[in-house]
């Protein structure tokens, strides 16, 4: 059953033709990608894609309220949208951002990892791997416009990008906080962080589950730029222009040179990584930690 969900999402989206606003995403109009008339949109309800063919740039906006958790559907739709952009030679760059105010992404969807079947966990983990691989090795220039808090899986998405712009708001912390939940960031999450901030900073951040506020995030290099909140998108567009000034083939080969060894480590042992995840997540103690954490989040309001 669980295996069919991804396939259903895939089929529904592959059949969806490129289309123009407001038909594709009812209720959304205007030059959201900053390109005026040329802006075209496609995507799915949870992963909006606004494209500016004249500039060769697209914006992927995550829209899975309330917290942009990365459910199986979001992961699947994200991969499909990315693949469409990769396959269309019009596009050379993509900005990844959020449509949920104040939240870039709350990370992996904890409800997908709690109280579900082994088959579901396996399908979910494969989808997490797939998104990471696609983003990490994308031929496009990928820039994160981080306009909200970005823990764990949200941070991972940012780390796969070529450049990170974070909005300057003390609430918008970013980091791999898995240990705070009583779980462990997998080796490829760890590798992505080490490749960004270096071994010592990564070791300390991972063990303590640190979530860095903007100034600290910039200091340790987990983000590349911190800008006033209303300038995140324009700053990302400026950075994009600089990266797009480099010839694609040279930049892509260099990116591949830097990243492929890390990606290959996962590719070579994808099934083993899934088995490890299954064993880990199915432990009673881990399920209990996740339930306690989810309950705490839910009770916060009450
Ligand atoms: C071998 C490897 C094994 C395992 C590796 C597994 C790796 C996991 C990586 C991850 O990404 S785990 C997820 C880590 N995420 C977090 O720790 C973030 C948790 N969320 C928050 O801290 C807060 O929700 C927020 C700061 C993002 C937003 O705060 P606020 O605006 O106050 O919203 P609420 O806290 O009230 O949340 C609203 C609603 O959303 C639910 N929710 C929050 N986060 C998640 C999540 N990650 N997955 C699923 N659901 C989430 C929360 O429970 C609330 O639900 P209600 O039913 O009460 O509405």
How would you portray this structure in words?
By secondary structure, the chain is of the alpha/beta class. It has one domain: 2-enoyl-CoA Hydratase, Chain A, domain 1. It is about 50% helix and about 15% strand. It is built from 11 helices and 10 strands. It has helices spanning about 1-15, 70-85, 120-135, 155-160, 185-195, 200-210, 215-220, 230-245, 250-265, 270-280, 285-300; strands at about 40-45, 45-50, 55-60, 95-100, 100-105, 140-145, 150, 165, 175, 225. A 7-stranded mixed β-sheet has the order 1-2-3-4-6-8-10, with helices on both faces. Strands 5-7-9 form a 3-stranded parallel β-sheet, with helices on one face. Helix 2 (about 70-85) runs parallel beside helix 3 (about 120-135). The longest helix has 20 residues, at about 250-265. The model is unreliable at about 1-35 (pLDDT under 50). Ligand LP6JUW53 binds near residues 108 and 109. Ligand LP6JUW53 binds next to strand 7, helix 10 and helix 11. Its EC number is 5.3.3.8. It is found in: Mitochondrion matrix. Keywords: Acetylation, Fatty acid metabolism, Isomerase, Lipid metabolism, Mitochondrion, Transit peptide. Pfam families: ECH_1. Its main location: mitochondrion.
């Amino acid at each position: 059953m669980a295996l069919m969900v991804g396939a259903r999402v895939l089929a529904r989206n592959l059949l969806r033709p490129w289309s123009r606003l407001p038909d594709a995403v009812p209720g959304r109009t205007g030059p959201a990608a900053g390109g005026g008339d040329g802006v075209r949109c496609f995507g799915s309800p949870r992963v909006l894609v606004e494209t500016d063919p004249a500039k060769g740039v697209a914006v992927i906006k995550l829209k899975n309220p309330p917290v942009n958790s990365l459910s199986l559907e979001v992961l699947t739709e994200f991969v499909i949208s990315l693949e469409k952009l990769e396959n269309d030679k019009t596009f050379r760059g993509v900005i990844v951002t959020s449509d949920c105010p104040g939240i870039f992404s709350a990370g992996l969807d904890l409800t997908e990892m709690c109280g579900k079947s082994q088959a579901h966990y396996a399908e979910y983990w494969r989808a997490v791997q797939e998104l990471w691989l696609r983003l990490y090795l994308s031929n496009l220039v990928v820039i994160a416009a981080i306009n909200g808090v970005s823990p764990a899986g949200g941070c991972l998405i940012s780390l796969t990008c070529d450049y990170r712009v974070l909005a300057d708001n003390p609430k918008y912390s970013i980091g791999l906080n898995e240990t705070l939940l009583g779980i462990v960031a997998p080796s490829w999450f760890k590798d992505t962080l080490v490749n960004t901030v270096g071994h010592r900073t990564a070791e300390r951040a991972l063990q303590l589950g640190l979530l860095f506020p903007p100034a600290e995030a910039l200091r340790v290099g987990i983000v590349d730029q911190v800008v006033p909140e209303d300038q995140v998108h324009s700053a990302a567009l400026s950075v994009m222009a600089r990266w797009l000034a480099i010839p694609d083939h040279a930049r892509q080969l260099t990116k591949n040179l830097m990243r492929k060894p890390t990606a290959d480590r996962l590719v070579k042992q994808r099934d083993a990584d899934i088995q490890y995840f299954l064993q880990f997540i199915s432990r009673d103690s881990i399920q209990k930690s996740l339930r306690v954490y989810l309950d705490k989040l839910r009770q916060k309001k009450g």
